[in-house]
Amino acid sequence: MAQRKLNFSAGPSAVPLEVRTFQQSCISVCGANSVLQVAQEEMLNYKGCGASVMELSHRSAEFAEIVETAEADLRDLMGIPSNYKVIFMQGGGTGQFSAIPLNLCPHGKEQKADYVVTGTWSAKAAKEAEAHIQVNKVLPKVDKHVGIPPQSEWKCSPDAAYLYYCDNETIHVRSHLCGCPKNLGMAGVTVVIIREDLISPPAVHCPSVLSYKINAENKSLYNTPPTYAIYILGLVLKWIKRNGGVGGMAKRSAEKSRLIYELFDKSNGFYVCNVDRAHRSRVNIPFRIGGTQGDEELEKLFLKEAAKRNMIQLKGHRSVGGIRASVFNAMSVEALTLFLEFSREFEKEHHK
């Protein structure tokens, strides 16, 4: 029986695993339909074809079925209309920082886009876009991103080609995110969902691998795609469908985040989340220990003691410090209970 740790990584994050027991923070594996176990069972011989998925040609009938099923399941789960294209690309969100302006503003510096900069990732996106187009930052620059001004205060351009915003700043953290190495599987594949009438020839200097038009016309097979990552994505989508779909995941996330924030709010300032309540995330939860600025020695001790309990990847991002608990879809409420129990014990022992 395999023993695994509780993984709070912000990404690549835990992949769905159905479990039987939780003892001393170790997960006892069970359930033949878990994503990792299916991948394990099919590793050497995918559905009797005599080869691993990672060995299949992306032009093979077997892989065609994998990518077509993944797209169909994604459309079903998300309710994606037929006039939208689903494209499986590479390069991650960082690649899209360039792909978006190159595709939506083919005339380059003659065109403008609005950017809602609310944290690290949207700031990076705006900086990357500035190499290709005019960028209007609709919000004033701030030292700390703990909230978002009301839309009435945004200074948008009437002639902007598009408005860019990041729905979940995983470092400063707000709202929701559905990212492949977070909620949709493993790193390597980037999912682009775009309305068909927005797809047109990109800027002349746009690399073909970033062209929405080329990749859409070639059904995500213009060049060799991240085949295994798409396969894992497909398994995760099946798992989501078995566990209540998007609604089930939303309910699950709401309950997990409620339990964590309830713990913080009842700690009398021992655990502090500095993000405005209206903009707190359900999946990436940063916090400080010992006050709003944090007690670094207490935080180091918290991480050390958590590691002894087999809880990993809790250290906050280097740019903001503190602790960050990422509780994506793969983490169950039962697994989170172990973290909550440990946190209460730590508070009881160290809160003066």
Automatic annotation (TrEMBL):
Domain Aminotransferase class V: from-to ranges: 34-171, 182-335
Cofactor(s) needed: pyridoxal 5'-phosphate
UniProt-recorded Gene Ontology molecular function terms: O-phospho-L-serine:2-oxoglutarate aminotransferase activity; pyridoxal phosphate binding
A GO CC term attached to the entry: cytoplasm
Keyword annotations from UniProtKB, A to Z: Amino-acid biosynthesis, Aminotransferase, Pyridoxal phosphate, Serine biosynthesis, Transferase
Pfam family, one: Aminotran_5
One Gene Ontology biological process: L-serine biosynthetic process
Pathway entry: Amino-acid biosynthesis; L-serine biosynthesis; L-serine from 3-phospho-D-glycerate: step 2/3
EC number annotated for this UniProt entry: 2.6.1.52
Entry keyword Transmembrane: no
Catalysed reactions, as listed in the record: O-phospho-L-serine + 2-oxoglutarate = 3-phosphooxypyruvate + L-glutamate; 4-(phosphooxy)-L-threonine + 2-oxoglutarate = (R)-3-hydroxy-2-oxo-4-phosphooxybutanoate + L-glutamate
Family listed: Belongs to the class-V pyridoxal-phosphate-dependent aminotransferase family. SerC subfamily.
Protein name in UniProt: phosphoserine transaminase
Organism listed in the record: Rhipicephalus microplus (Cattle tick)
